[in-house]
């Protein structure tokens, strides 16, 4: 019976091996690369994972900001190699979310009294997963739950995040980008905002009805907060960019809602005027 690699991992459980360095910090992944029955993608991915601890990124500004990808400047860099494998590498990357091996990436934040931090393998891997999937993984709601990017501060969440990534991969690996973004309209707030932006820029006709449905749900919910207003504004602009006139009523209602609270002088947040302008831009 043919069983997928991800199914085997989920079915038989996950053994956490929290690596803290050692004489050969990449040995775990090199041993995994020698396991029988692996695909070429899996075998190559494990070999590249064994090199991630060697990554030595440097801060790009005085806040300690840095990019984990070189985008062709270092084509042999392990994270670039893994990135180029696409969605199929996600199950392997998810296994490394418990790998706390220190890397050679030591970032200094000069704004915080020269605060210095050594990044771990799982922290770099978490950012790569986010980049490849173009999806924000959160345990809980965005803004309130635990983010995958914060795995370094929440090592106890490695199993939960691994399962979350596996589940997303199984549900999205065969979908084209447009379909994945339409699905994200029902995801957490960050993904809903990103999906609206992407669908509008790509003029997705298939997204018109899902966007209308989501906007009506917001307007009918009776809730009032800056997050929902931002979502209404982003989705209104997306509909305007798509240009399908059947969305006009929903966009007009969003503009009325946003202008009502602005005119009453009871803003829901610091961006209420910007949200109204964005929605009005979509209507125009």
Provide a concise account of the structure shown.
The chain is mainly alpha-helical.
List the main descriptive attributes of the protein structure presented here.
284 residues; mainly alpha; two-stranded antiparallel sheet; 13 helices; 4 strands
Written account of the structure:
The chain is mainly alpha-helical. The chain has 13 helices and 4 strands. The chain has a two-stranded antiparallel sheet with strand order 1-2. A two-stranded antiparallel sheet has the order 3-4. Strand 1 and strand 2 form a beta hairpin. Helix 10 packs parallel to helix 12 and helix 11 runs parallel beside helix 13 (272-283). The model is unreliable at 1-19 and 263-270 (pLDDT under 50).
* Topology order in helix (H) and strand (E) letters: HHHHHEEHEEHHHHHHH
Unreliable parts: 1-19, 263-270
Shape: elongated
Q: How can the largest sheet be summarized?
A: 2 strands, antiparallel
* Gap between N and C termini: 57 Å
**Share of helical residues:** 40-55%
Which SSEs are present, and which pair or pack?
Elements: H1 5-12, H2 27-33, H3 40-49, H4 78-84, H5 90-95, E1 102-109, E2 115-120, H6 121-133, E3 138-139, E4 146-147, H7 158-172, H8 177-183, H9 189-201, H10 208-221, H11 226-242, H12 248-263, H13 272-283
Antiparallel strand pairs: 1-2, 3-4
Helix pairs in contact: 2-3, 9-11, 10-11, 10-12, 11-12, 11-13, 12-13
């Amino acid at each position: 019976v043919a069983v997928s690699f991800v199914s085997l991992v989920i079915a038989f459980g996950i053994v956490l091996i929290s690596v803290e360095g050692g004489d050969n910090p990449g040995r775990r992944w090199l041993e995994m690369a020698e396991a029988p029955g692996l695909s070429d993608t899996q075998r190559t991915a494990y070999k590249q994972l064994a090199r991630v601890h060697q990554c030595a990124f440097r801060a790009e500004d005085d806040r300690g900001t840095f990019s984990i990808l070189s985008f062709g400047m270092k084509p042999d860099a392990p994270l670039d190699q893994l990135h180029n494998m696409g969605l199929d590498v996600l199950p392997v990357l998810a296994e490394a979310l418990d790998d706390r091996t220190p890397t050679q990436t030591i970032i200094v934040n000069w704004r915080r009294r020269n605060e210095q931090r050594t990044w771990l393998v799982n922290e770099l891997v978490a950012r790569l997963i986010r980049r490849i999937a173009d999806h924000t993984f959160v345990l809980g709601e965005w803004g309130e739950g635990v983010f995958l990017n914060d795995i370094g501060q929440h090592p106890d969440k490695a199993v939960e995040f691994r399962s979350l990534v596996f589940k997303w991969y199984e549900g999205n690996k065969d979908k084209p980008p447009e379909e994945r973004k339409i699905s994200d309209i029902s995801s957490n707030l960050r993904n809903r905002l990103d999906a609206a932006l992407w669908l509008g820029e790509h003029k997705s006709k298939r997204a018109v009805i899902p966007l209308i449905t989501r906007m009506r749900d917001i307007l009918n919910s009776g809730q009032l907060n800056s997050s929902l207003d931002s979502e209404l504004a982003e989705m209104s602009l997306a509909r305007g960019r798509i240009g399908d006139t059947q969305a006009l009523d929903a966009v007009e209602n969003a503009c009325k809602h946003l202008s009502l609270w602005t005119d009453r002088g009871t803003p829901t947040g610091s961006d209420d005027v910007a949200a109204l302008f964005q929605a009005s831009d979509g209507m125009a």
